[in-house]
């Protein structure tokens, strides 16, 4: 008989994990003895500082859950295999984030990372050698396994009320997929994520110039024009990325789509039901073109966009004086900010609202963990992954936005990362990076190429949209 993870008024604080605080070299890191503040979500969280760099955190664990049993040592000596794309530094950070759980429970989470994950996971699952848990950075890939009945329905042992405590509805909606026979299931739990709907700027130069952060598209366009009149291009844009050239353009279109049409239309667009040739999609591309194709608005002009590497495009913001003022990119772009620039010298604002009725959605990318083998210790690990504690050391080292509710403010490496989490938590609409959900023939094929052709001028808008749409016939 399957036991569901029940929400109960007797839910007790039974999980005590010892995490090592990763000391960041970034400025603004709090000391070990800092008094923690309430989390942005309002959840009551407390942290007790101990000697050295250790910090004890507690997480609410429902009575009777497999996680509770694991924390009591009932599954000591068992092993849970896990396969995913984390390698090198990411693999080290992941292993650090699970160490306290392994020490507490005696469960060995045997993680195997591969740069060829997307290609090899099919071979392993279809060959009868599926890992207990797999980490999918592209939900579209997971959906195929869900459709064929290969993954375990998370809702078969985690109660919906518990999942709603851990995640906002938008996250839970994105985890629901069609199972074998068309029956809906919860295909996994969300772990590490990254926010994409961000516009970065040089904080000091921006203030010195007397500019104010825009809150709407119209305000941003007015500021873009003002900066041009002041003698500078507002935007630095680059879409060159080797064989993946064009993907930054797809991110712009996705963000604009979320701000100019309904979430339902966005979802239909990902499947091809709303074609790229539709006026709704063309309108989004035209909005982008209002900035990209104006020679006074873009550093180097339109012709430079295709040849400028996306990572290099942030650098003109930090010359003295700045050669450009804005760069729209995901949170990971801070890794490309010139050496010597500290966190207090740059900042971001949300890609602004265009049509008020659609608000300011958060577009994200992230990892969803799916379960292939149903055993009690595997359930316990999956339940652990629904807690913010499963990411604590990773959050503290920087570069991760937790999708779970209730992350304490003092875990974040700096204020920018704390605000990213707050932005996602407060967004009324959250959607995954669209190209990662489209068939690969489109999302990693004609969408990249079609946008590159359009931006370079080798294809008209109509030609480019038809080219992109043709990818749906190749899947």
Provide structural commentary:
By secondary structure, the chain is of the alpha+beta class. It has two domains: 252 residues, D-Maltodextrin-Binding Protein, domain 2; 199 residues, D-Maltodextrin-Binding Protein, domain 2, CATH 3.40.190.10. It has 18 helices and 14 strands. Strand 7 and strand 8 form a beta hairpin. The chain is globular.
- Rg (C-alpha, Å): 23 Å
Terminal Cα separation, in Å?
40 Å
Name of the top-level CATH class of the largest domain = Alpha Beta
Mean pLDDT: 87
Helix content: 25-40%
CATH superfamily of the largest domain: Periplasmic binding protein-like II
In CATH, the architecture of the largest domain is: 3-Layer(aba) Sandwich
The shape, in one word, is globular
CATH topology of the largest domain: D-Maltodextrin-Binding Protein, domain 2
Tally of helical segments: 18
List low-pLDDT spans: 1-57
Structural class: alpha+beta
How many strand elements? Answer: 14
Percent in strands: 15-25%
Largest sheet: 6 strands, mixed
Please tell me the total number of domains.
2
Notable traits:
475 residues, alpha+beta, D-Maltodextrin-Binding Protein, domain 2, 18 helices, 15% strand
